[in-house]
Specification:
Alkaline_phosphatase_core_sf, 19 strands, alpha/beta, 16 helices, single chain, Alkaline phosphatase family protein, Phosphodiest/P_Trfase, 7-stranded mixed sheet
Length: 412
């Protein structure tokens, strides 16, 4: 990694102690277009040419996406995980930013559609859709009580189409190794709660893929462990080591299944990074001095619209007569960036070209805490008890690796 590149990116995107997305060039949103371009297809904007200018005649791209394993996590685990050092020697690690919000639901809808959150309208893990009078988790597609929404279809969660039919039309075969099967790719499903099942699923994909091909492998285990234990914990270090043992094994499988190693490009990336919050100090919006629940708009049945965004990306849908007072309270009491809806649109925080779907789902206020979680203890205390979190604009949430190496260089 060239520290000058990272320093320049940090300086350019810095907003005080926050870091803004680099939508115009060095952003996670441009990975799908980069993969497609390397395989001779066009699905959207790509990273600058310098990110992949060493690689020619690529016939297979394999992307391992380790959920939550941002640049800070890569740097923090490098000394403990030899695979990371070996990968750096074989290839390159390019620093890029996540999207805003730095959340899996928003980022993965971007990854699968090559559109920004301002376009696809998934404002966070939790979404309020006014036209359907529904409040639900985008991943999974469930209400908080565990039932499926009845007034919106899963196809309408994101206002975007997947890139995979376009890749297929261009002759690129796509295989997904993920706990969540996709109808628009060749799925190879494994159990997210049992990482040992990943290897067989990946081996199957590597054996079956016909070039030109794109194999996408998703590993969410590090993120889940960080929520409960934090990134500075033995449990996190153990799951990170096991995850990259599985990735290393998958690369060995690729080498044994591939005749011409030089035509396969291996990429490692993440949807976002992580920070450790402090459950002792995390902020309860349902308690004094906030007591915000009565200020919220409600569904038609009278349920307050608590759940929009996440605990590091709080979208507040407020009664019109309460917006100014709530804004004043939050700016006085919170260590956070508090943005009015028009300011969010003007600054293009979620991206440019906002769709009508995004605009109606966007909160009247968006709260981006600097270092803590901010949520509703009366209905979702567990989120305030989480340690490792993401979704905001802390540099450790926003900076992620785009690491690349040819299979030949890794196999040497």
């Amino acid at each position: 990694m060239q520290l000058s590149d990272l320093s320049a990116l940090r300086e350019r995107q810095r907003d005080g102690e926050y870091l803004l997305p680099a939508y115009e060039d060095w952003c996670f949103s441009r990975i799908p277009g980069t993969v497609a371009d390397l395989l001779g297809a066009d699905v959207g904007p790509r990273l600058p040419e310098s990110a992949t200018d060493e690689y020619d005649d690529i016939s297979r791209v394999v992307v391992f996406l380790v959920d939550g394993f941002g640049l800070a996590q890569w740097d923090g685990e490098r000394d403990r995980i030899p695979f990371l050092r070996d990968f750096e020697r074989a290839g390159r690690v390019t620093p890029i930013t996540s999207v805003y919000p730095s959340e899996t639901a928003a980022a993965m809808n971007t990854f699968h559609s090559a559109t920004l959150p301002s376009e696809h309208g998934v404002v966070g893990w939790n979404v309020y859709e006014p036209e359907a009078d529904e409040m639900f988790e985008a991943l999974p597609f469930l209400r908080k009580d565990g039932t499926e929404p009845e007034r919106i279809d899963i196809e309408d969660v994101a206002n975007a189409d997947p890139i995979y039919p376009e890749l297929e039309a261009a002759g690129v075969e796509t295989h997904h190794v993920t706990p969540f099967p996709s109808e628009s790719t060749v799925p190879h499903t494994y159990d997210a709660d049992d990482l040992s099942t990943f290897s067989d699923a990946f081996d199957e994909a590597a054996e079956e893929a016909s070039d030109p091909s794109y194999i996408f492998a998703y590993l969410p285990q590090t993120d889940a462990t960080a929520h409960a234990e934090g990134v500075d914990s033995e449990a996190y270090r153990e799951i990170a080591a096991e995850t990259f043992d599985r990735v290393a094994s998958a690369i060995d499988t690729l080498a044994s299944e591939t005749d011409d190693h030089g035509e396969t490009l291996v990429c490692l990336t993440a949807d976002h990074g992580l920070i450790d919050t402090d459950p002792e100090r995390n902020v309860d919006l349902s308690a004094p001095p906030f007591d915000l629940v009565s200020d919220l708009k409600t569904l038609s049945d009278g349920t307050p619209i608590r759940f929009s965004g996440s605990a590091r990306n709080v979208n507040l849908h407020l009664r019109p007569d309460r917006i100014d007072d709530v804004y004043d309270t939050l700016t006085a009491e919170l260590d956070a960036k508090v943005l009015r809806k028009q300011e969010v649109l003007d600054t293009e925080l979620f991206g440019p070209n906002p769709s009508p779907v995004f605009e109606r789902r966007l909160g009247d206020l968006v709260v981006v805490p600097r270092e803590l979680s901010v949520w509703y203890g009366d209905e979702a205390r567990d989120k305030l008890d989480y340690v490792g979190m993401h979704g905001g604009l802390h540099p450790d949430e926003m900076l992620i690796p785009f690491a690349t190496a040819t299979l030949e260089s890794l196999a040497d």
